[in-house]
């Protein structure tokens, strides 16, 4: 085995073709940047439904990123066509939440406003045993994310429905996620916080069960940049989830190569009736997440019932992004936030009060906030460093096997483990450099 196997795998370009076609279809309909009143005097038309009031902060910009059809792709294509024909984007959002079939990758190329966050991807998929196209599509695109490299940042996988099976070049296999009947609410969530650090390979394949079992999947993946001083830290993994949501399938003792920490269930707070907050990282309402981070940040999932109000003190100088998972919302007095839109808040020199209030329907908001690192960012696909020279070094290290060897997602556990253990000596030497 080795890198040659990666070069032989030619199934991914079809997904890129589908993504490109659907991006073109959506850019005239949903892939756009909305200028706010603060920036241009323009504002989008107001919409009916639940509204979110945000006071005490300034909205820098509002964006809606294209949602690409996948798993099952034909569901996502139908949603796009219905939105275009009916002129009501909310129809596709409702169908997606109910049946799956799309992913929304939000890549923050302008990291000056999102720092330290680099990417957020909202996945909503379903796998049905009786889907006539599923098995053809699975031949062209594996149901998950086969082995790929990371260095220089952290990946946060926040699972609301379904789950994943993780295997990596450090010899760790983990199955984690929410219970089978989870709707994404309550206390069923699970989190994998993976520090890639000096470099590793991992795969995340959807936990779909046996051939005749259907499954719903929903998760957010968030990329968090590491400070320059910590880019080459040793890889580690932190897990959040209730008993049974996160389980060791195989976790050999690896010495200095990696650490796996079980941090307990995802902490939550209910500061008042109608308000629920999951604290994935950071602190809110007197509850602090046990996740250890390399910089000051908070990742919060806020759920508001109709009429509920919630406030959170946004620290001075912090970046802050708000993504609407459910509900249509209003930011401040002038800017409308619809479902699946992202609002970027302006940084302030002093602490500000972030106030959220829902009206007629339930609202769910994912909040990403953190102290900016203010360091150069060199983004090379799955590797995030501070310079092009460091990216070039990372690619050389990858080719030399310092991240570990490539395995196939179809390999059984014995074959996978034998493959990765053969490179542990080389990986350990790389960590000592």
TrEMBL record:
Gene3D superfamilies: Jelly Rolls
Residues annotated as domain Pirin N-terminal: 119-224
Signal peptide extent: 1-30
Keywords linked to the UniProt accession: Signal
Pfam families hit by this protein: Pirin, Pirin_C
CDD domains per the UniProt record, alphabetical: cupin_pirin_C (cd02247)
Domain called Pirin C-terminal: residue spans: 300-404
InterPro entries (UniProt xref): Pirin (IPR012093), Pirin_C_dom (IPR008778), Pirin_N_dom (IPR003829), RmlC-like_jellyroll (IPR014710), RmlC_Cupin_sf (IPR011051)
Transmembrane segments: none
Family, similarity comment: Belongs to the pirin family.
Protein name: Pirin N-terminal domain-containing protein
Species name: Symbiodinium natans
